[in-house]
Amino acid sequence: MRRREKQLDDELRFDIEQRVAGKIRAGMSEAEARRAVRLEFGGLEQIKEECRDVRGFFESLLQDVRYALRGLRRAPAFTIVAVATLAIGIGVNATVFTLTKAVLFNGFPMVERSDRLVYIDSRRTVEGCCLSWPDFQDWRAQAKSFRDMAAVHGDRVVVSDEHGYTESYDATEVSANTFGLVGQKPILGRDFEAADEAPGAAPVAILNYCLWERRYGKDPATIGSTVRTNNVPTTVIGVMARGFSFPQKTELWIPVKPNAERAQREAHYRLWVAVGRLADGATIETARAEMDTIGRRLAAAYPAADQGFRPSVHAFPEFFMGHNASLMYSTLLGAVGLVLLIACANLANLMLARSVARAREISLRMALGAARWRILRHLLIESVLLSIAGGFLGWWLAVGGVRIWQGMDRPWRVMDYSLDYGVLVYLIAISIATGVLFGLAPALRVTKTEINFMLKDGGQTATGARGKHLASILVAGEMALAVMLLFGAGLMIRGLVTIFGLRAGIETGNVLTMQIALPAAGYSTSEAKVLFFDRLQKRLQSVPGVESVTLAGSIPTYGTTRLAYEMAGSAQVEEQRRPALSALRIGTGYFQTLGAAVLAGREFLQADDASGIPVAIVNEKFANGHWPREDALGKRFRVYEGKLPRPWLTVVGVVSNIAQNDSTRADADSQLVYLPYRQSPGATTWVMARTRVSPESLAASFRKETQAVDPGLPVFGPWTLENRMAWAYRDLTNLTSLFALFAAIALLLASVGLYAVIAHSVSRRTQEIGIRIAIGGTAQDVLKLVFRQGMLPLVIGLGVGLAGSMALFPVLRSTAPVPPADPAALAGAAAVLIFAAMLGCWIPARRAMRVDPVIALRHE
Hints:
The protein is an alpha+beta fold. The chain is built from 25 helices and 22 strands. Among the domains are: 2-64, no CATH class; 130-308, no CATH class; 479-504 and 722-860, no CATH class; 520-712, no CATH class. The strands form three sheets. The protein has a six-stranded mixed β-barrel. Strands 13-14-20-16-19-17 form a six-stranded mixed barrel. It has a four-stranded antiparallel β-sheet with strand order 12-21-11-22. Strand 17 (636-641) and strand 18 form a beta hairpin. The chain is globular, with a radius of gyration of 37 Å. The protein starts with a helix and ends with a helix.
């Protein structure tokens, strides 16, 4: 230190002489120069003193860092446990923050100012739908809250050319201004132009970069080449940049073209959604108010088409992830926050135990003149170093966690899950904050203890008594947080199990399904569609291992067509007030294949075709609702497609209720009727087959037989029916899995925390336990002593945690279909935690019961 001070003095004298020499060169005499420098000397000396202070501070800080590293290296077990605990807590936080940032803030990757994009569809009061082309044109012309507005419509197209096999790709029809709206343009070729939308314009397409790379080998000559999309010659005019896909996972884009069907204002299902970019100064609230006014204006002007429809404006999260996306991901952030708090409480207990064990070292340093703030700083540096190491490992855990989530997420979603600088800043911030959080309380506790007490017997009795209450409080907090997470995870798991357990009204086992979309070219007539599926059904029926084959417009639990209807003999009502029902077109053998019961009448026959009598089958709820004490067979009703009524339908069968339009299987649709596919076939149809062997083993045969009927026709699938139905609640499954993981981590950390506290307490009380045994105490007395200490914070934590769980329940109900918060759920969460806590107490208790009093008294 003296050598350093002498060096600083030498530097000061050198600077003074330099200043004097400079003033002499400027024309002053030596005496004048020295007087002037003496006037400046006071300020210069102050600067040098400040420099000494800064240098000294950083030197002492570096010394504390080196000392902390040496201390951590001398305690490898403590360091490994602490870093691993922090890595888990920080890693799951960084993972969920990345997911939340992607969903709530990032939007689509490579989209300019995605936070200013909104999505607009047209909805009735009770059902959501899309929009018609005339409505879209009116919205774009009348809305002032948007700088621009584009229309998109998702579809699948079949691409065939000499570059590979005929394949089906995800395609999106977009209006010509779409790419300009999102701030992107093709990296090769040109963008769509208004002329490309005109009726009769030559078909053109723009390729996704991945499709251009995979199918065409990134050949620039692809631009201007002709491919066939749905058997229509189409010119490739551009390629978008790598990584760009909008408004979902899209492999090629084609321009929206108004046709005769889209020109009808009643055709509310001809477009998917409108995308609007908010104008400067506009907000989503003002856009909603304006679009509601426009919707009312259109409903008044066109009551037959738009009565009851209202434009609905959505931000990215609520449109693509659901209306409760913000709450759902905020709940996830809260859950991982609880995990991190439990980790902090664990580490605080470990730091407290370690500081008690280091009481003599700390007391000697303070007795030798170390200030309390210096000891406090050293302990905080130690905890921050641990948290930084945990944050480094947590980063790699987050990288792996995000990759796993991407594999679990729906493949059509295009999300920016990158761990960018924002995630890095968040991780650094929580790492440092975590180090301060779990290190501050133990450091304050140990530095407040009187030196005389700390020096006496190593200070273990004094600091141990002071730290015991803090340790118990921390353990009780861990237990409370853990029981909240266990309760939430238990409810979500029960909700998912309930969905799996509810019968959809069918036998889902051993059913293979695939979807086929017939192109307009070659299958423009109903006869052509029926002929194709007749041939396909016959070929699939002959595959070894297949029992029966059927067709349907949709699979169970998925959506159906909504049609207005009226009952025979009922009073006529105006068009806008007609009730609606769900209708599903099915083929022969549908109920037999799916294992549903025909309660009365019959299934559809081959004779129920276009030349036969129009017939229908209704489910049990429909029959009981309209003819409660009558035989439904022979009753008549008719449906409307648009404004036009279809012929009167005669009921020829009543079947058991099958869940439709409800992925949770909670209830079958009470207004569900079945129409024969052969009387009104659709282009997109699901093929389902019941098998005597494993369904997966027949997937290749089903593709082969389909190609045999039409070599250029791709197959969407096949999948087992169970897997495809589970796809509908994949988000709920993923969310439940995360909650279960967080709850398991919380349970593990809380149990380890309790065990560490009890084990440390037993080790500190070895002499006391030995004396108790020596004067007649039994093993049961020791067991009671240990369990009393361990179960008290558990009881307090359970009480606080159960109260917090009831406050958490409304949040869970708003994010997922969870069952009511019955006492069984609370009891289950409490039982799991009690068992883990008893295990955490039992191990140290066994060790305490084996204490040899002779060894303990000799140690005394």
